[in-house]
Amino acid sequence: NAFCVSPRTSSVPAFIATSPTVGPKVAALFSTPENTEAAAEGDASGKEFTDAQKEEIGNLVADDEWMGLSMELTELVRTAVIEEMKKNTREFTGKDEYKVGDISKELDSRVKDEVAKLRGKDDYELGDLTMAMDKLSKDLTCELTGKDDYEFGDLSTELDARIKKNVANFCGKDEYEVGDLSVEVSKRVQQSVADFTGKGEYEFGDITNEIENRRRKWIGDVLGKDADDYQFGDLTKKAVSGFTGKDEYEFGDISKKLMSNVFGKRKRGGSN
Question: Would the pTM count as exceeding 0.85?
Answer without folding.
Answer: no
